[in-house]
Structures
1.
Amino acid sequence: MRPLRLGDKIARLAAAVAACAGLVACAASREKPQSEEPSTDAPAPLCAADDGSLGTAALRRLTRFEYGRTIADLTGAAASVTDELVPDERSFGFDDQADTYSVSTLHVSKYFDVANAAAAALVGDSTRLSAFAGCDPTADSACVEPFVRAFGRRAYRRTLTAEEVSALVALERATATPGDADGVSALVAAMLQSPELLYRPEPSAPDALFGPALATRLSYLVTATAPDDELLDAAEGGALDTTEGLLAQTDRLLATPRATEAFTHFMFEWWDLDGLDGLQKDQALYRAWDASLPGEFTRETQAFLAGAWNDTPSLAVLLGAPYSYLDSTLLGFYGVSGTPVPGTFVRVALDPTRASGLLTQGAFLAVHAKANQTSPTLRGKFIRERLFCDPPPPPPPNIVVSPPTVDPRLSTRQRFAQHTADENCKSCHQLMDPVGFLFEHYDAIGRWRDVDGGQAVDATGYLVGTDVDANFDGVPALAQALVQSDEVRSCVARQWFRYAFGHEATSAADTCTLSALAGELASSNGDLKRVVRATVEQQLFQNQRAEEAAP
Amino acid sequence: MIHLRSPRLSRRTLLTSAAGASIALPWLEAFAPRRASAQTAAPQRFVVMFSPDGLLPSWTPTGTETDFTLSTILSPLAPHQDDIVVVRGLYQEGGGGDGHQNGIGGMLTGTTLNTGPFGGTQAPPAGWASGPSVDQRIADAIGNATKLRSLELGVQVGAADNWGRMCYRASDQPLPPEDDPSAVYARVFADLHTDPAVLAAERARQKSILDAVGADYARVSATLGSADRQRLDAHLDAVRDLEVRLTKVGQLGGAACADPTIHAVPKDDNDAYPDVGGLQLDLLAMALACDVTRVASLQWSRSVSQTRFTWLGITDGHHDLSHLGDGDASAVDKLTRINQWYMSELAALIAKLKAIPEGDGSVLDNTVILYCNELAKGNTHSRVDAGYVLAGSGGGAFETGRFVRFDPSQQIPHNGLLISLLNAFGIADTQFGKPEWSDGPLSGLI
């Protein structure tokens, strides 16, 4: 395995925890190493290259999400054909971290099955099959070679070499029994599991033709799928060799629905929302819960994110929007007024003293709660870990810790009060629970409540150990502080960097690039679309090369 | 209903009950000639069953080595008491990451986790285990004759990270458990009802595709730097494994081999956990009966499991419960019943293997099942006084019907148990896992 790439801050935190007894671990972690935070007020430095200081980029494998979209685009198979693949490894919530990948015979066996299924779908669709080379390779053997060239260019994201073409044509001949369709299906299946498609091999030499590799980087960054014909044409025509040409293609891609879907995927991973799939709650306690709600919440948040992306996906909107996108089911579930449109999620204005973007949507609230109660700890931990990039350490191994058992005679707040009363627990839990208490008006399935455990809800709490420490009452007040926080902006840039580059920022070029992205976030009023675009302008994105071939 | 599964899994009952699945078996006869040899060969087999989140102090039997009374948790094993060895008191070694991570990672490998990327919320984070697991070392010795070298099954194993992996082919090479019974069925048993001529043609086609794919991986690998090349070569190795597997398709054997019956289940639905597990146990048992593999494992959930045992009337998450204090009578009662339930599943597996005749006895006689947990005690993450159950004698390698108690204060590394298992399968190694923890087999076990 590649050497560990870890944020210095986390490494230091780890060292602090290892060095201290459990009791003082969190006190130590709160001495935040400010110098390691990317600066947001200095002008973005040029993270220059040409002297090797960019380091090398690790080989990336398409995630299940990217692979599904890629082969769906190529073959017309449903993207869900990849559901049977082994799940992607995750680190920091993201499924595209190159250091985490493992491969086993089961992985490869599943790729084989999926590639065959997608190949069969394509071969069964004569119209789509014939569109690649203007002829049907299953009906006309003279069409096989032009098909290989045309399909191969899309599949391998570059023009195939003569050797590759002849090897694939030979495969088709060897497998064309009983019919030509079998041979075409075999060659398509082989290409769909080739490293040229499934992985993203890139040239290592600085002077190598880099346009197609850059097109692939750009396409997966912005749209989470392979380059389309227009982008490949631009790449092979040299149009991506200038930043202007690259940005022209970036802007074109940013306006496509594919970009909206890719942004939504990033947001779901950052916000830990994939847990919605199959989420279950204790239905004896939450009678309003039913199996359709996770899907409803997913579509609400997808519609909200698409709306934000197509306008301005700023932190102020994402964290503070006093509106959401609801269908008739969710209007009823949340108990808010609006004009119901069955099956359609339309923008609905909400009470600004209650609603606050993603933070008060069912998706976030239900995932960050237990099956039978809210969890101020889980909600506070999310804010600390995913919005401040300052995760509390795990419970020390030598004490007995647990959330309290449900006692309906007490409020959640009272039950969790033992955390901050017990000195063993206080040092860490005061970083999380008082933040989580701000969400107490929202129950474990995401509905507003005024009473908990027979008592009026107290949603006051505080942030401590951040650059926006204060007392608050409720989520909208918290969100206003988060939007103002330099630490939150730095953290958002860090989350995006992890996703965009597939690893933690460690090298000097990485951290310099991270600072530039954080700077873009600050100067654009927190606009994430501007950060995506600014990523493409970075030397690290444009010029980093793969490691030289080993002898 | 799953608790009432028939322990008898004979071919005859399965065939007569297969009408619902309407699976005809015209090609099964093709395997008939192998049965006699399979009976006389009586291959050894190794099975691992894991359950998560720690044992309890009350897990331990009382009495002497040969005259002992099972605890409440272990009581479902009573019908099989003569076929098991209960082991308690070892120190389950492991290192790196948090207690659950290094617990599940060290349990079968006897070594530490590499540094790595898992644990964005934990400090320090850790990677995959740094060596092979005992089942894979055993598969090196006994896994090469069968279609599958080993079969890793799971039940709701969750995310792909080091909290959810216990089997490793080698350092940094975790083996993901497959947790969808219908996918397992398709992968393992589809050949049973395919026309041999069709199967042969399909195999030839698959081999052509894999040849081309393998050549691609070899070519691209040669252009890569060393770290990237290592990763792509692992992929290439797996492609070659698949090719080798094609040459073994159809080599199913065993007198009791029959097409298992399965039904659709919502595999990720908490309340379907017993049903999914029951299907996986059926598939595992039949994979052994058919000699599709001789090394198998079943991983229930994962470390830090939050399974809610609603079918026992328990709605709390298992891991939440596992952290409550020893003085919390309600929690102790629930955890006792949860662990007891897992033991009833182990008993069901033992019964299934007993029901498959082989030679003068049953498949169980030639098998060793190892039951394990990532922690000795859930609420402290302690691995002192770890407990294990062995079932079956592995063809006489172990003397069963015993309770072997070690002194936990001695902190004897559990590597000795893993080495004893290797020895039971004819592997004469005296070291396994981390050398510092590795000092020959356990005395008094074999």
2.
Amino acid sequence: MTEFPLLRLPLVALKECLKIMNPLELLNLSMCSTKVSKLIKLGGTSSLEVSYLFLGSDTKQIEIGTSRSIYRFEFPASHTIPVFISQRTADFLVAVSQKPEKASFSWNGSSLELVDYILDTFNCPIHSISSGSIYPYSSLVELTNWVLTRQSTIGEMSVTTRNLDGEGFKEILDKLTVTEHLDVLSKLNPDFQYTFKKFPRSIYFDSPYWMNLEQLLASDCKSITLSNSFFTNSNLDAYFEKWKNGDYPNLKSLRIASDRLDDSAGIAGVAPPVRVENNPEMVIR
Amino acid sequence: MSVEPEVPIVQVEEVRENPVLYKIISSDNHVFTISEHAVKLSKTLWDLITNLGLTAENALDNPIPVENVNGKNMETIVQFCERHKYDEEEPEYTNYIREFVLPEWDRQLLSIDNEELFQLILATNYLDIQKLMDYCCRVIGDMAKDKTPEELRIIYGIPTDAEDDALERSASDSPGPSG
């Protein structure tokens, strides 16, 4: 069978062909030659969502998300990187019931070098970084510094690093603006204080003793989840008062758990116990 | 017992609807008849028909010459357009990687030699038929499935960096038009 002269196609057809290929096929194609690697971005790859998950010193994952699938490259592996492909469901969650397909990709460098290669080839920003709990703080700094060499904002960041240095973390939040979602599951010293210039659209903080009422009232998030917080009934009264006055038009979800909530007193005029509507066994705390 | 000849659905619809028909002449002088709904899938042909002021009355007396498309490709194109003439208009898509499956009928139609496929794409590009372009590109994109870079280089005829450099050097060494 004769070869198909891909590079002789009219530009409009070449673009369509590239748009039809999935990220793994595009990456394999990019490895054919420098000339081809420079053409890959014509396939509209700039809107792909690339995530880097540093789960441990020798466990890293790179995820490339399209509108329908997620391609996950798993390290450690030398030369042949296993790639797991999962389909997204209609509500944008990955279908976990199906066994993911496994493909592979040949790469001789480190995981971070591969992320760099992917971002350069696809001409897209890094969408999300995530650090595991056994990830040392120094590596988080290294990772965020690497992000800052490419961009000053990031869609999502998840920080679960133990022994997070408060001052250093403040510096990271000051330099790197998180726009979509921020997870902070690390324990911070009680004297840690941070004022967001601009809140991400969604936050999930565990043990946010450092987040005071003033901060909560200043938030304009779409989704707020705070577990193990210090908020009291009167704090929540103040928040709901502002909400009833139309102060948080973007708010879609609010979940606050606190040991300081008093089950015997009401919140925002609702007598205790306040229960979840579709699960009466669950008491909102 | 005599068996009734099977009439293709397309023809039944044509008779029932009494459609406007147009004549197209390929570069090698083959003549094709195509219905109005089908020809509208080609932006180039429909613009031409509109600009020439062809109507139901004079359409068949004024065949449209298409110099850039031969009879073989035009036959495939007419078949495709007649097949898809009543398809719902596809929603506008954004500049994003697209995932869709090629229908079996179209896969059969486009099961052709790579050189023929290349020529068909050039014709499709000239006639500006978005859906056929999408489908041809799906066939080309599918060639990349589960292939290594080395296999892709062979399938798509992609020169290595060294070959590209050599080509560039020989191009710069060769005398220009005035030399």
